[in-house]
Specification:
With 346 residues, the chain is of the alpha/beta class. The chain starts with a strand and ends in a 27-residue tail after the last helix. Helix 5 runs parallel beside helix 7, helix 6 packs across helix 8 and helix 7 packs antiparallel against helix 8. The strands form two sheets. The protein has a five-stranded mixed β-sheet, with helices on both faces. Strands 8-7-6-9-10 form a five-stranded mixed β-sheet, sandwiched between helices. It contains eleven helices and ten strands. The protein folds into two domains: 132 residues, Nucleotidyltransferase, domain 5 (2-Layer Sandwich), CATH 3.30.420.40; 171 residues, Nucleotidyltransferase, domain 5, CATH 3.30.420.40. The structure holds 5'-O-[(R)-(carboxyoxy)(hydroxy)phosphoryl]adenosine and zinc ion. Zinc ion binds next to helix 4.
């Protein structure tokens, strides 16, 4: 049962074909990093134009690598939000065109759901599980208890964790995207030299906040004047340690909360681009072990934005009979948990 997945919600143009047997038959990702790097962040208009330029040929390439034609597909799935609306429109319209011309079912996938279900593709993790979703745009803790069944326990009240990594990198002149650069520099730094705040630590609930940490990095950099490489490394190590402490604290609380409703909770899952961070994974490994949970993290290429996760979410929705009408609209905002507090970041 092969499904074509399309992802265009941010700065990656991606197309993939995945089978119901969990075999990833093709998984192509075109990064737009070089297009956005001069601006120090993603420029929505540039992103949308690059998606338009690339998506048709990428879809054909994904099919050809999978050894399939449009006629062999059982459905076409595309990210329909949340994300940069111009880009989302490109991917969803492409999927609609394929669905109409080749008479295939259309599945409009929530990008967060695609991240949330990836571990079922990679590791066949059963429901329920606790999910920490940490990327450039998202920072949430969710209980995933079934396809379409998500309860949000916490989210960020300001920056996403990846965003905080990116801003820290920018302040330190480490370039974009900042996460991998901060992690690399931190490995050579002393986390104890600078004392940085740990926003939300010990507070009730499971929400995150990173803007105070980012401000503290900025004032420290300003006080240093012209930071040396060792200053940069030490500050990165201090930032990463503070972020790790906050995330660990929030996850412990979320696990306790989730267990009240799901005493059978066995897995802690981490997904999103920041899940590629080895230091953070180590912290989460320890937290999981203490709480009697098994940590599962998809491999980095399936943690960052990709279309295999969209195709897989399509398969899960197809199995559940959750198809979409051709008139389905793209959405810039689309919280996974419909009951989640209005006004919070998606
Ligand atoms: O999931 P993703 O590719 O795109 C979004 O949906 O945002 O995540 C990208 C984010 C960026 O903020 C990037 O700096 C961060 O993930 N990231 C990392 C690492 N690798 C990527 N953050 C910390 N450590 C890393 N090794
Ligand atoms: Zn993402």
């Amino acid at each position: 049962m092969p499904v074509l997945g399309i992802e265009t919600s941010c700065d990656e143009t991606a197309a993939a074909v995945v089978g119901e047997d969990r075999r990833v038959r093709s998984n192509l990702v075109l990064s737009q990093l070089v297009d956005h790097a001069p601006y120090g962040g993603v420029v929505p208009e540039i992103a949308a134009r690059r998606h338009v330029d690339q998506i048709d040929s990428l879809v054909l390439k994904a099919l050809s690598e999978a050894g399939l034609g449009f006629g062999d597909l059982d459905a076409v799935a595309a990210t329909a939000g949340p994300g940069l609306i111009g880009g989302v429109m490109v991917g969803l319209m492409t999927a609609k065109a394929i669905a109409v011309v080749h008479r295939k079912p259309l599945i409009a996938v929530n990008h967060l759901e695609a991240h949330a279900l990836t571990v079922r593709l990679t590791d066949d993790v059963p429901f329920p599980y606790l999910l920490l979703l940490v990327s450039g745009g998202h920072c949430q803790l969710l209980v995933v208890s079934g396809v379409g069944r998500y309860r949000r326990l916490g989210t960020t009240v300001d920056d996403a964790l990846g965003e905080a990594f990116d801003k820290t990198a920018k302040l330190l002149g480490l370039g974009y995207p900042g996460g991998p650069a901060v992690e690399k520099a931190a490995a050579e730094g002393d986390p104890r030299r600078f004392s940085l705040p740990r926003p939300m630590l010990g507070r009730p609930g499971c929400d995150f906040s990173f803007s105070g940490l980012k401000t503290a990095v900025r004032t420290t950099v300003e006080a240093l004047g012209e930071p040396t490489w060792q200053d940069v490394a030490d500050l990165c190590a201090a930032f990463q340690a503070a972020a790790g402490d906050v995330v660990a604290d929030r996850v412990v609380r979320a696990a306790a909360d989730a267990r009240q409703q799901h005493p059978d909770l066995r897995h802690l899952v981490v997904a999103g681009g920041v899940a590629a961070n080895a230091f953070l994974r180590q912290r989460l490994e320890a937290v999981a072990e203490t709480g009697g949970l098994t940590l599962v993290a998809p491999p980095p290429r399936l943690c960052t934005d990709n279309a295999a996760m969209v195709a897989w979410a399509g398969i899960e929705r197809l199995r559940a009979g959750l198809l979409d009408d051709i008139a389905v609209a793209p959405r810039a905002r689309w919280p996974l948990d419909a009951d989640a507090a209005a006004g919070a970041k998606a």
